[in-house]
Amino acid sequence: MCGIAGLACKPGVSPDPTLLKAMSAALRHRGPDGMGEYVTDRAALCHRRLSIIDLAGGAQPLTLGSIALVANGEIYNDPALRQSLPDIHFRTGSDCETPLALWPRLGVDYPAALRGMYAIALLDGSTPANDIILSRDPFGIKPLYIATYDGGIAFASEPQALLSAGIGARAVRPEIRDQLLAFQFTFGCETIYPGIRRLAPGETLRIVDGRIVERKLHPAMPPRPAGPPLLTSEAAALEQLDRALIDTVTAHERADVPFGLFLSGGIDSSSLLAAMVKGGCQKPRAWTARFDVGCADESRHAAEIAAAAGARHEILTIDDDMLWRDLPRIVAAMDDPVADYAIIPTWFLARAARAEATVILSGEGGDELFAGYGRYRRAITPWWRGGKMPHRKSAFRGRNHLARTKSPKPYASSSSGGRMSHLERAQASDISEWLPNDLLIKLDRCLMAHGLEGRTPLLDPVMAGFAATLPDHLKIRNGQGKYLLRRWLQNNMPAARPFAPKQGFTVPIGTWIAQKAPALAPLVSRNAGIRAAGQSTKVQRLFEDAANRRFGRAAWHLLFYALWHRIHIEGASADGDVFDTLATH
Question: Could you tell me where the beta strands, DSSP code E, fall in 76-130?
Fold first, then answer.
């Protein structure tokens, strides 16, 4: 796990060492254990390393003849790939060495052979232009950004690395800002910064002479035959789910450093813990967050689950003093902005876990693959009973122009191979947008800010292949989502009480904002970013009434954006508390 960056230059242009140095320095938090570079007269790669596998010998860039590679990620089928390549003499134990060997054999299709999470950059010195090949994993677990500059194309694990090198504009695209304020994240590949875009999940680019000449897309969900899903027997589905869960969790535990789990007490993380124990993990380490004011609190339930699993468990209590003190540093980590209030507990949990672990397993993906969200239940309800395709609602609905901002509609993926149900269309939309552009950015930035690797066993080709065979009735039944996963958990960890009503996970951010409204509202309303968005007159009312759920989400989005704008656009320091950061001098 690490940070990567590099340059693919136009003819007659050589890589600028000043740009490489600036990008590498900006990514130091992603890889505090080492750095490396590979530079030719046409292109360059740089790498910041967080050592996870082959601590002594796995430094990057890795080379094979005239081909070089830097990678941010983990390749979980590395042992099997090595066995399939008996003619290759591997020089390290790094799991990232096998993609290097696959490129000459498979070309731009090489990512199809990988099981893992990754952002990979290859430099092919056997070509006259020293082609650069960039690849991102199909779920978009690991980030990768590109931008054009005078010398060609630059790429990096985070936008702030490009901006630190003077590549891309430290400015705001109004239409993308409005998406962020309305929905808490931004859609598609265009970022909020003019000139900087994300690689799409599953995208591979080949860059020659500083321009993109080939593009390939590897979908997250496998195609399936036309007609109904393949699995209809619940007993057979449970048996296959058991095999898939143990397989993926065991693969994701592979590390030469200590690992643990974020345990919310919900179905997804509890299933991971049960699979860890069933797979032979002894005394797993787990962390849970709770809040010191009245809101949904699953920490006691999480403690019961941890005890049943024999886990070493720590509960972290987050209070408002911690929030106001540390929120600027949390927002500073979110250079590609995500106003998801779950960044708050994720960031604090990562800081606590880093004292004992370097790798964290997390349950992202369970809701999307197994249909856990309440909006999915609307998708399977007949229209005459009020059912409809779900869509995201603006936090400002009914209040101003942001209410008219549109979110992407659920769609049928061209890779599905057959007709999709309404539920499958809604899941496909979330897998393509919500997961990579909200949940996975949140996890990546909050953990990497502390030099911690996040792994998501439910977002895995084995799990995706299994989930693609499930009919709707094994996902949602009797008004509850994730039916099959709940059944598996009931069989393997009854203490989790998977069919009992859940409180859900919330953060009392609205209550905290309302308490500080007299001091906070004037600072936010005067913020340059808030004024440019036309929201300054809304702040006082929203903040005063933020404890009301109807207003709290919008108030939080404005607070997040005001801090984000101060830090990432205006260049304010994040070293002080919220009030210091927002104050203009």
Answer: 116-124
